[in-house]
């Protein structure tokens, strides 16, 4: 068994899509970044990379590489899944918390769980996704950005 954790942060800005866990969410602000800036997928991927001692996302998908400009993070998750299986591991469970002031994410959580479970080829019961607000405090509360924290437990494949 191996454990990894991660945190990902992206600013919010007008004119960008808000994509979390591969779900397009209607909102007037979206996450800004080199890829689609999906903080949920990024934190999940990096927790897996951490558990495998493979470094961070920037090592594998550098923001200086035009190949990843606007990249779909669910597709990047598939590449991390390949790395994980090549090392002989599978998801035991994953727990993620998204911090974003608006919009409320409850209506989207199940689809996010389904997307993450599907790309990492595990049971939806192995994926927990929660959301909370910044209560108008700090950059999250002022709607300047969003954060996601994730932890995963990887099990050796048998």
In short:
With 158 residues, this protein is α+β, with helices and mostly antiparallel strands.
Structure write-up:
By secondary structure, this protein is an alpha+beta fold. Helices cover 29% and strands 31% of the residues. Helix 1 packs parallel to helix 3. The longest helix is centred in the middle third of the chain and has 14 residues, at 73-86. It is globular. The N and C termini lie close together (12 Å). GO terms for molecular function: 2-C-methyl-D-erythritol 2,4-cyclodiphosphate synthase activity. This is 2-C-methyl-D-erythritol 2,4-cyclodiphosphate synthase. Keywords: Isoprene biosynthesis, Lyase, Metal-binding. Its cofactor is a divalent metal cation.
Sequence of strands across the biggest β-sheet: 4-1-7-5-6
Q: Helix and strand string, N-terminal first?
A: EEEEHHHEHEHE
Helix percent band: 25-40%
The biggest beta sheet reads: 5 strands, mixed
Q: Got a strand count?
A: 7
Mean pLDDT: 96
Strand content: 25-35%
Note the gap between the termini.
Answer: 12 Å
Structural class based on helices, strands and sheet pairing? alpha+beta
Please tell me what the overall shape is: globular
H/I helix tally: 5
CA radius of gyration is 15 Å
Low-confidence stretches: none
Cofactor: a divalent metal cation
Family: Belongs to the IspF family.
Catalytic activity: 4-CDP-2-C-methyl-D-erythritol 2-phosphate = 2-C-methyl-D-erythritol 2,4-cyclic diphosphate + CMP
Binding site for a divalent metal cation: 8, 10, 42
